[in-house]
Recover the amino acids of this structure.
């Protein structure tokens, strides 16, 4: 069917507007962090400076925050994968009584407002676990609650797409159930695991709403540090650190995409032929 | 090829129920060591469940599975002296052909690496897949994948090789070729092969012995010839080869009539006559057991197949030597067969 030129033009304009809408804030922040001006007044850079970036990296709360966030995100991701993968496996491959209920329980945190979740953890830590407040472990534990639904859903979808007969074949060939899982099932779901891991890490690294309840103002994760600094000072240092986060996220997303494409090679090109 | 194993399998009173559905109702079966045994039956008859029970991938509710004289009823799949070839092949997509085949040698850690390599090469040569050792399963054709699946199971030198519809995903020409190869591999390794199939010609071509299953029970077990010539039940008579089956018998002074034909005396619920046992005679011939109108005739090379309709409208198939009849569609002829050609089922059994 031939599209009319008017429709083509409309489509182009629409896509352009959406792209601008998505990218504009990012571009503004990126420009602000490399333009010498204190306040960005034009979209055409009037020079180039790394001043704001080095200031951001020198700013103590940001430096602490980057390390803190990375630790929290790494720990939360590892825990979420270690808990979520067996949960997804049990739901996909075994007959658990009340599987439907369990599935709902794993998804439930998604519908809980994060501010409320944050306050719940605050109340829990203050009343019962004072030592967890403001620690990497305490924050990471709270983040696991947010990450589990994604891990269970992504890994579950991966398991649903892999042939259960492969695992039986492994056991038939002498592998114990544990060996069969690690040697055969795990390689089938390594892409969903990678995606779940990357997604978990980025989500946790970026988390503000819940985290802000769980740490004192002097030692915070990076996003919380950005939030707190913005309340006092609006200079481009904040733009600079945000730019760093944008670039890092894009790099990670790009690498993940490449890994997924490479791994796809032994899946695509599958010949479903029956002859020789 | 002398180190391959071979054990007998003894199945006694095995039952299996899924929920409220009884899939296997008390199965007993003896499988001789080094024989090629087929479990033949329509889909849903429980043959795959029985095979999975032998493999240890399913557990019977009751009953005993003895392999090579040892009770393996409660042995886990990975500790059994059996290996299974899955219907889908179930090749590991992330491993090369050689690594797929080597998988089962690495798990038991008893095979030294050098020996494992030579055994993988040997078995891939047996199934003519040696030159594909470094390929991934996704790049192979259906027939090639099934060869690798068989090699992967055989390389462990199981006492019993279990095959679940190994040829059903292949096109017909390839099926016919692989039947001969399966038979040859069984003879060269001397391993006991147990093969599930719903295809009676496949079972007859492959097996030393066939167990015909229906609705969760073994109807009859025997050689292809036994089953063809002496079917023990109406089901076996209709499932193995072609047969004309007659029901609703009406007793006469001497014998019965059914569907407009006269049969010899004897108690039975149903009667069967093979197409090749039927002769066509002139309609007024004294030997005629009843008239039949010729519907179609077709020449197949080895025979002429004539489809007839009796006076009650029942269709009868006759398979005659070429030249044995000149009957044309529309002719009315007499249908004749020897008393000895009639098999009886039901009341007389």
């Amino acid at each position: 069917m031939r599209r009319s030129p008017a429709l083509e033009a409309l489509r182009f304009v629409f896509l352009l507007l959406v792209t601008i809408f998505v990218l504009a804030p990012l571009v503004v922040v990126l420009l602000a962090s490399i333009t010498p001006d204190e306040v960005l007044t034009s979209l055409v850079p009037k020079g180039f400076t790394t001043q704001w970036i080095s200031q951001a990296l020198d700013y103590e709360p940001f430096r602490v925050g980057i390390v803190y966030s990375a630790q929290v995100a790494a720990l939360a991701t590892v825990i979420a994968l270690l808990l979520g993968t067996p949960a997804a496996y049990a739901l996909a491959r075994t007959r658990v009584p009340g599987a439907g209920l369990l599935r709902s329980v794993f998804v439930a945190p998604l519908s809980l407002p994060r501010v409320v979740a944050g306050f719940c953890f605050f109340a829990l830590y203050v009343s019962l676990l004072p030592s967890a407040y403001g620690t990497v472990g305490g924050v990471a534990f709270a983040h696991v609650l947010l990450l589990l639904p994604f891990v269970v859903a992504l890994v579950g979808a991966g398991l649903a797409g892999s042939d259960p007969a492969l695992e039986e074949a492994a056991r038939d060939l002498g592998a114990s159930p544990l060996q069969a899982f690690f040697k055969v099932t795990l390689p089938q779901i390594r892409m969903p695991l990678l995606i779940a891991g990357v997604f978990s890490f980025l989500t946790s690294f970026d988390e503000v709403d819940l985290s802000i309840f769980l740490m004192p103002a002097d030692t915070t994760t990076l996003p919380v540090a950005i939030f707190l600094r913005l309340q006092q000072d609006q200079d481009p240092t904040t733009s600079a650190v945000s730019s760093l986060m944008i670039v890092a996220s894009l790099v990670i997303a790009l690498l993940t995409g490449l890994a997924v494409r490479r791994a796809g090679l032994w899946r695509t090109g599958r010949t479903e032929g029956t002859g020789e | 090829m002398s180190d391959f194993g071979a054990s007998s399998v003894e199945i006694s009173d095995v039952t299996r129920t899924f929920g409220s559905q009884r899939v296997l109702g008390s199965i007993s079966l003896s499988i001789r060591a080094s024989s090629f045994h087929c479990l033949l039956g329509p889909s849903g008859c429980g043959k795959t469940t029985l095979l999975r029970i032998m493999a240890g991938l399913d557990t019977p509710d009751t009953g005993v599975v003895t392999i090579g004289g040892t009770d393996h009823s409660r042995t886990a799949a990975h500790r059994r002296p059996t290996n299974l070839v899955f219907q889908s092949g179930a090749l590991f997509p992330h491993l090369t052909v050689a690594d797929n085949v080597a998988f089962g040698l690495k798990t038991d850690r008893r095979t030294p690496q050098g020996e494992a390599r030579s055994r993988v090469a040997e078995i891939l040569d047996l199934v003519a897949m040696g030159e594909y050792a470094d390929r991934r399963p996704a790049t192979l054709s259906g027939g090639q994948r099934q060869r690798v699946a068989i090699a992967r199971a055989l390389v462990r030198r199981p006492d019993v090789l279990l095959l679940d519809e190994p040829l059903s995903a292949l096109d017909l020409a390839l099926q016919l070729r692989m039947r001969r190869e399966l038979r040859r591999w069984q003879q060269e390794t001397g391993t006991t092969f147990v093969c599930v199939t719903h295809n009676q010609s496949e079972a007859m071509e492959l097996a030393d012995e066939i167990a015909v299953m229906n609705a969760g029970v073994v109807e009859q077990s025997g050689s292809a010839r036994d089953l063809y010539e002496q079917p023990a039940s109406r089901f076996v008579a209709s499932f193995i080869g072609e047969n004309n089956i007659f029901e609703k018998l009406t007793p006469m002074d001497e014998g019965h009539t059914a569907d407009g034909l006269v049969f010899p005396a004897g108690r039975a619920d149903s009667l069967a006559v093979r197409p090749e046992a039927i002769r066509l005679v002139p309609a007024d011939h004294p030997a005629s057991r009843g008239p039949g109108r010729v519907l179609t005739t077709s020449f197949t090379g080895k025979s002429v197949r004539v489809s007839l309709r009796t006076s009650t409208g029942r269709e009868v198939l006759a398979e005659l030597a070429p030249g044995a009849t000149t009957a044309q569609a529309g002719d009315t002829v007499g249908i004749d067969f020897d008393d000895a050609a009639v098999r009886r089922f039901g009341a007389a059994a």
